[in-house]
Amino acid sequence: xxxxxxxxxxxxxxxxxxxxxxxxxxxxxxxxxxxxxxxxxxxxxxxxxxxxxxxxxxxxxxxxxxxxxxxxxxxxxxxxxxxxxxxxxxxxxxxxxxxxxxxxxxxxxxxxxxxxxxxxxxxxxxxxxxxxxxxxxxxxxxxxxxxxxxxxxxxxxxxxxxxxxxxxxxxxxxxxxxxxxxxxxxxxxxxxxxxxxxxxxxxxxxxxxxxxxxxxxxxxxxxxxxxxxxxxxxxxxxxxxxxxxxxxxxxxxxxxxxxxxxxxxxxxxxxxxxxxxxxxxxxxxxxxxxxxxxxxxxxxxxxxxxxxxxxxxxxxxxxxxxxxxxxxxxxxxxxxxxxxxxxxxxxxxxxxxxxxxxxxxxxxxxxxxxxxxxxxxxxxxxxxxxxxxxxxxxxxxxxxxxxxxxxxxxxxxxxxxxxxxxxxxxxxxxxxxxxxxxxxxxxxxxxxxxxxxxxxxxxxxxxxxxxxxxxxxxxxxxxxxxxxxxxxxxxxxxxxxxxxxxxxxxxxxxxxxxxxxxxxxxxxxxxxxxxxxxxxxxxxxxxxxxxxxxxxxxxxxxxxxxxxxxxxxxxxxx
Amino acid sequence: xxxxxxxxxxxxxxxxxxxxxxxxxxxxxxxxxxxxxxxxxxxxxxxxxxxxxxxxxxxxxxxxxxxxxxxxxxxxxxxxxxxxxxxxxxxxxxxxxxxxxxxxxxxxxxxxxxxxxxxxxxxxxxxxxxxxxxxxxxxxxxxxxxxxxxxxxxxxxxxxxxxxxxxxxxxxxxxxxxxxxxxxxxxxxxxxxxxxxxxxxxxx
Lengths: 574, 204
What we know:
Number of helices of chain A: 22
Number of domains of chain B: 2
Order of helices and strands of chain B: EEEEHHEEEHHHHH
Structural class of chain B: alpha+beta
Structural class of chain A: alpha/beta
Strand content of chain A: 15-25%
Mean pLDDT of chain A: 79
Number of strands of chain B: 7
Shape of chain A: elongated
Low-confidence stretches of chain A: 1-19, 120-127, 555-574
CATH superfamily of the largest domain in chain A: P-loop containing nucleotide triphosphate hydrolases
Number of helices of chain B: 7
Low-confidence stretches of chain B: none
CATH class of the largest domain in chain A: Alpha Beta
Largest interface: A-B, 15 and 20 residues
Strand order of the largest sheet of chain A: 9-8-23-22-21-10-20-19-11-18-14-15
Largest sheet of chain B: 6 strands, antiparallel, barrel
Oligomer: heterodimer
Helix content of chain A: 25-40%
Distance between the termini of chain A: 79 Å
């Protein structure tokens, strides 16, 4: 069979169902390389204005089908001289004759996955996800390029099931794009985007997926008190609606705690408990994390260690109860410099003034262990910060809690490795932190529990879900370990660069990221999706609630109702 | 080939890619760029595009001279000097662009043999033009045929075909796009052809 005949017969067998008209190719591959991507010249009838950056395309190569993303486009022309005498000025007919010949649209596309053609065994509609391979070759010259069809999306992104969760829809089609939640839970992940681009909604949708499929326990450090009971939609002023939070969607499987009961009362939110922190529970590691927030110097941190050596676990309380005139004696007693001791005293006094901090708290008085208990059991916890929105408080509390979790989960994992009993296997846990760049900045990421978790704790069943608007502030070593990134619009060059840290071929996708809509669109890339994809994120509305809400919770939770479920803890702490 | 055609001349010189014919009527030749055809024995036939014409004395070296005067009245010079019709002749040059195929269908391309001397030359009718210009492949060898004013020739040929197609704009655009593909790298020549085609459209 000669080459053109083979070509057409291939098209005929591959793309045409009986009774339907063959879709015309949008263009053909003319240039390209595996590393730099492919150039596609658009066919007559398709202009660059029909294309969108981030669109999902399919190339029918000779032996493989390639799934690709549009990354850039360009106006091409056969002769530069044309610029001196543009045809549109002379005659519309001339322009029409020259269209796509002397001038033409060029689209850059990046192949992401390939599907070898297995010939006879390929059954239309059958799942092909298992055969998808990373791209290791490129299509032959003049391979036709098509818009992805619904079947193409389905074969790459699968359908919803126990582990696949629809996070949104492609830009130009109404079919689901699914995340593999098992893979989400395997590694730390990030949700990024500028302020107001829908990060929290995206996070909430993702968490709802994780909770509804019972993939992992989640602990949300809820800086703006918007995950637990309810939140406001993001329409303009006056049109905002109250939308249910995780507690309202999942009932008593989600426990809401607060460090600011007054704020909860004022908002009419019933919490399951009030978290208080004893000065005796605060470790030097927690203080070290606040180095920047409290403006602590190295010698001051050294002084902390000296104090602890002398006074033991109660060092912080003892220091804060010391009267300023006695400071010189203390300095002599512990061998510290008086100036840095006084400065430390002044700065740490702020901690004592926080409403939820107590001088002394025994384990039985603290709800900390109760919260961790829920997580071990497989439930979910949201910790609201109420009015304590300062990074200082958020970081102190989050680190303290995480430190305990970190230690406990390591113990549990080691025990499991010893006994190898299925019942001893620790529950997977996902920690959700906002303003993550403060915990994971290069300065502190190496010393905090968050840094450790992001780097290696997946072996110990704990992962992070990092929610941030400044990914460039995150330590590159940590950023490169993030498995899946869900990214709403970012415009700052460094932030865009940071999102693609550790992603091969990431530079091609920069344009895609910068061209997202400012709301309800996200680029998803990494471990949980077979290839990067731009989605319109799912609506957080009744239809969504109905798909994730467990049976039996539905009745109580229409937005606006204050009916809280009765459970034993509500009786204790409500 | 359709039979209601009028012979306009007779082949007087041939080469592989061209032929020259003498008009039966002095000063009458097929218009520039129009399709002409010849018929040979055994159903053979050739298609040519008229690429230029010339009127000169029948004897080489004997130049025509002016016969009139400044204060002549408007009587035709050829009526006053009837011998002129016998000492002058009109010839036209044609580029071979196709031939009659085995089933009598027109084929674009270089014929295996040129027409014979003294074969008659007909001006193609509209039906013949439509049959011949179904594709634009002829442009490819027209460009290589080494004729003067080839851009004008292409534009004129497409213009004839366009009118034979009843002024179908889609045909004109299709032909223009074929030219654009061939001349994409040479914007000046391409623009020249396309602007001529645009004025064809304006003329209708």
